[in-house]
Amino acid sequence: MNVETAISYCAIAQTKDQAGTGDTMYEIWYGAEPNLNKTPRDPVGHAILGWLAVPPGASQISSDGTAISLITNGSIVSKVYGKPVSAGTDDNVIGDAPNNSIFVSMFTVIEDGTNNLWYEINYNHRQAWVPAAEVTKVPNRNN
């Protein structure tokens, strides 16, 4: 798993690297493209849990952003979108994430001409969007 630097991730768990490197291992949700032989109907990516090794002094705990949990009623996955627009949403799906996966949103937008609120997340090396109707804020998390 390759992740971008200078991006906020919500640590689900953390531990010292058991290999003795001195790194801290952080468990994060991340959008990835695990299946290169996908059919046209498959989303581009799927959120997975992964462990990120961070050398001492290379990370910061921040209160910037909002930790959010994705939840969709009636489904086990939430859709992740490439643009914050409701029209043509099925064409706009770039992936999915299991319910209760946690991401950090650095900002929100209100869709033009509607009252639909969208949260921005980092997903599969790009900026992505999830509708507020499918988001629950996670209290008291360090990003």
Low-confidence segments, given as residue ranges, are none
Rg to the nearest angstrom?
Answer: 16 Å
Order of helices and strands: EEEEEEEEEEE
Helix content: under 10%
Strand order of the largest sheet: 1-2-3-6-5
Strand fraction equals: 35-45%
Q: What is the chains' assembly state? A: single chain
Give the overall average pLDDT.
85
Number of domains: 1
Structural shape: elongated
Distance between the termini: 19 Å
Q: Describe the biggest sheet?
A: 5 strands, mixed
Number of helices: 0
Structural class category = mainly beta
Strand tally is: 11
What does this structure look like?
The chain is an all-beta fold. It has one domain (1-143). Helices cover 0% and strands 43% of the residues. It contains no helices and eleven strands. The protein has strands at residues 13-16, 24-32, 45-54, 66-70, 77-81, 93-98, 102-105, 108-110, 117-123, 126-131, 135-137. The strands form three sheets. It has a five-stranded mixed beta sheet, with no helix packed on it. Strand 8 (108-110) and strand 9 form a beta hairpin. The model has no long low-confidence stretch (mean pLDDT 85).
